[in-house]
């Protein structure tokens, strides 16, 4: 996935290997509850994130999307609501929507909300779209730590759209810009959301094998740090570590150990239960195919 190969531009990657954004997006609903600020929303988000039945969530979350959409229409200049909407639409589109055409629509809305949120929170960001890579990076350097919530929403909602449109090389070429935004957020607070930023960057750095210019050692470093910062409670991180890094490097022992740890771990973790259940389902499938793959 490239936009240009001039000096300073990041690595290329294959569209076919693009990440599943939702593997690490377990905090979007918490953000919505906090930003909407009502007791009912807090209760609903907790119920969703702590739910151990993904099918029930998939059938119920669309109503929550309508709720957030309605609140944004009533308060279109609320950066907080827009950031929450960006994360929620990115999460649902990436994880639960089965129709590819609808995934594009949902994640396009997520990206638009994310752009509006960062624009309201950081005026210079209103002119970020289309900037050359080096200029974009220099613009990111002045984003303050207090703006990290909006930068995070901006990056992952954009990422969700690139995932949905990964067959379009024009869209996928924007990936290095998203990675730069995540790296800036990491500079501001590496422990943000218990290591979520490291998890995303671990995936992004594993998109290409070393023979094609990938940086697996950087990927592994990010995954290890993400596991440490989440104290191993976020099982999706270990699944992605196995799927993205261990499989690429043909490290079966690491692959099987990570997935076995996921299957043995408790899923009931406040704020992570839903995604831990999904992670265990994925771990079981990956482990079952381990011998065939390696």
Architecture per CATH nomenclature, i.e. the level-2 architecture of the largest domain = Alpha Horseshoe
Output the number of helix runs: 15
Distance between the termini: 26 Å
Rg, Cα atoms, Å:
18 Å
Q: How many distinct domains?
A: 2
Summarize the biggest pleated sheet: none
Can you give a write-up of this model?
The protein has 294 residues and is mainly alpha-helical. Helix content is 65%, strand content 0%. It has 15 helices and no strands. The two termini are 26 Å apart. Residues 1-42 have low confidence and may be disordered.
Describe the structure using short key phrases.
294 residues, mainly alpha, Serine Threonine Protein Phosphatase 5, Tetratricopeptide repeat, 15 helices
Map the helices and strands:
Layout: H1 28-36, H2 39-49, H3 54-74, H4 79-95, H5 100-121, H6 133-140, H7 148-164, H8 169-172, H9 175-188, H10 196-204, H11 216-229, H12 235-246, H13 252-264, H14 273-288, H15 290-293
Helix pairs in contact: 1-2, 1-4, 3-4, 4-5, 4-7, 5-7, 6-9, 7-9, 9-10, 10-11, 10-12, 11-12, 12-13, 12-14, 13-14
Summarize the structure.
The protein is built from 15 helices and no strands.
